[in-house]
Amino acid sequence: MQLLRILRVAFLYSSFGFICLFGDLLFMPIVLLKFNKFEFVQRFCRKLVRLSWGIFIWLCKISGYLKVQFDASSLGKSGEIIIANHPSLLDVVFFLSSVKNLNCVVKGELGKNIFLAFAIKACGYISNEDNEKLLKQSLNSLENGESLLIFPEGTRTKDDIIFHKAPFFIAIKAAKILTPVIIEMRPRSLRKNESWFSVPSERISYKFKIENSLNLAEFLADKPDPIRVRRLQDEILKIYKELR
């Protein structure tokens, strides 16, 4: 049985790689010809990513590898910053396959990945490689009415959840609302530095809990921004403290 589980995961990983590689070949001319600077092109590319990664999640479900509870219909509002904990490799895949025209902050090293580099550029996703560019592009994204996904941990959750300050600075400066999403995953798998063939014996279960959105225009409006950023960080972290 364990061999069958490993073969299933190998098939799913191969499928994901094929989808990403095919997408990158499709996006390559868009990037090389600089069509990705146009907003309508970015929206089209994000739609392709949403549909193709939706197919991958469907394969994961019908193969019995995982089950998911995620109603994303309330997400994706203009000027919304979405934050979430980051328990596994697939977290961003769930969001980008479920929320229309979602922008997100991605790891800088993925911009050099043969399977993802052109897709990231074509969709206008934001690299965290350069802090100054990250802040500028994130602020522009929200001010232009996009919704933006950020994992405040910066990397996948280990034992304790520790949120960096930058996402809350971005939220106070440019977002209209902040929506926390709690990701519960049982059993834990697909973690940082974990081998792909470390397959749990039971089906992986994901549950996404969407908390009430916070109106940032009203959040400590009489306080200076540095205090608002720090208090927002503390307030949101309380929501996640019970996860570990």
Automatic annotation (TrEMBL):
<keyword id="KW-1133">Transmembrane helix</keyword>
<feature type="transmembrane region" description="Helical">
    <location>
        <begin position="6"/>
        <end position="27"/>
    </location>
</feature>
<keyword id="KW-0812">Transmembrane</keyword>
<comment type="pathway">
    <text>Lipid metabolism.</text>
</comment>
<feature type="domain" description="Phospholipid/glycerol acyltransferase">
    <location>
        <begin position="80"/>
        <end position="186"/>
    </location>
</feature>
<keyword id="KW-0808">Transferase</keyword>
<dbReference type="InterPro" id="IPR002123">
    <property type="entry name" value="Plipid/glycerol_acylTrfase"/>
</dbReference>
<keyword id="KW-0472">Membrane</keyword>
<keyword id="KW-0012">Acyltransferase</keyword>
<protein>
    <submittedName>
        <fullName>Lysophospholipid acyltransferase</fullName>
    </submittedName>
</protein>
<dbReference type="GO" id="GO:0003841">
    <property type="term" value="F:1-acylglycerol-3-phosphate O-acyltransferase activity"/>
</dbReference>
<dbReference type="GO" id="GO:0006654">
    <property type="term" value="P:phosphatidic acid biosynthetic process"/>
</dbReference>
<dbReference type="Pfam" id="PF01553">
    <property type="entry name" value="Acyltransferase"/>
</dbReference>
